[in-house]
Amino acid sequence: MLVPSSDLQAMIEAAQAAGAGLQRHFGQLAELAIRSKSGPADLVSIADEEAERTCRALLAKAQPAYGFLGEEGGAFGGSDDAQTWIVDPLDGTTNFLFACPLWGVNIALAREGEVVAGVTYLPAVDEMYVAEQGKGAWLNGQRIRVSQRGALIDAVLACGIPFAGKPDHPLFAREMALLSAQVAGIRRTGACAVDMAWVAAGRWDAYWERALNVWDMAPGVILVKEAGGVATSATGSVLDLHGQNVCVSNGAVHAALIETLNAALENPAA
């Protein structure tokens, strides 16, 4: 049984509180005020902003000295500059606004730049994923582990699909052309938080995406690692949380997946 630290407990409570508010808005989508953040494909609502304020307030109450980095509000320094809360209050905003239940609250704690605890809460499907360094990964109080499938031909992968305003559409098309003939399936939920948590839970065998932010991937990285998986950049190098791309897997299919992703990257004619 997981015995969470006080920091992880604060993260769980913040995610639950933010998720409760989001659920209320999710039930009233027709009345939800929506504005455009940077274009029609990148929508944001008052729900995101309220959820981030809730997270920040509860986390600051638990650890007022820690820094804070949020998708909506940006960065706030703390007197303890080695510790930073990283928050995406609503990952999967477009899903949320189109009444799809695959969205969640992401909260991570980074210490000296390394994620040491993570929470991904999916309120609409009642799934709370938590992980803490050295303590494993857990879903609703039950230990989870990555899948054991060892060959791409048996694997189901998840990915991020670049939408309007995002780069690398031709690269994505090359990746699909190379990978679709090698795997059992490729999926896209529309939320990085969901895809990374589902790799940790063994539902997907691997996931990759480009053009991400640190708050999209930070909790998923420790979830996958603590579930026995691997996290690198999309080229197979050491993961940089601020590098804007990620590849996570059960470990067994990682090398083959990276090889194919790099083939697409290096060969525009592929």
Secondary structure layout:
Elements: H1 6-26, E1 34-36, E2 43-45, H2 46-62, E3 66-70, E4 74-76, E5 80-91, H3 93-97, E6 104-111, E7 114-122, E8 127-132, E9 137-139, E10 142-144, E11 156-159, H4 169-179, E12 185-187, H5 192-200, E13 206-210, H6 214-226, E14 230-232, E15 245-249, H7 254-266
Parallel strand pairs: 3-5, 11-12, 11-13
Antiparallel strand pairs: 1-2, 3-4, 5-6, 6-7, 7-8, 8-9, 9-10, 13-15, 14-15
Helix pairs in contact: 1-2, 4-7, 5-6
Catalytic activity: a myo-inositol phosphate + H2O = myo-inositol + phosphate
Organism: Pseudoxanthomonas wuyuanensis
Cofactor: Mg(2+)
- In CATH, the topology of the largest domain is named Fructose-1,6-Bisphosphatase, Chain A, domain 1
Please tally the helical runs, counting DSSP H or I stretches of 4 or more residues. 7
Radius of gyration: 18 Å
Strand content: 25-35%
Read across the widest sheet, the strand sequence of neighbours is 4-3-5-6-7-8-9-10
* Largest sheet, strands/sense/barrel: 8 strands, mixed
Helix/strand-derived class? alpha+beta
The appropriate CATH architecture of the largest domain is 2-Layer Sandwich
What's the CATH superfamily of the largest domain, by name? Fructose-1,6-Bisphosphatase, subunit A, domain 1
**Integer average pLDDT:** 94
Order of helices and strands: HEEHEEEHEEEEEEHEHEHEEH
Number of domains: 2
Between the first and last Cα atoms, what is the distance in angstroms? 48 Å
Helix fraction, binned, reads 25-40%
Note poorly predicted spans: none
Strands, count: 15
The level 1 CATH classification of the largest domain is: Alpha Beta
The coarse overall form would be: globular
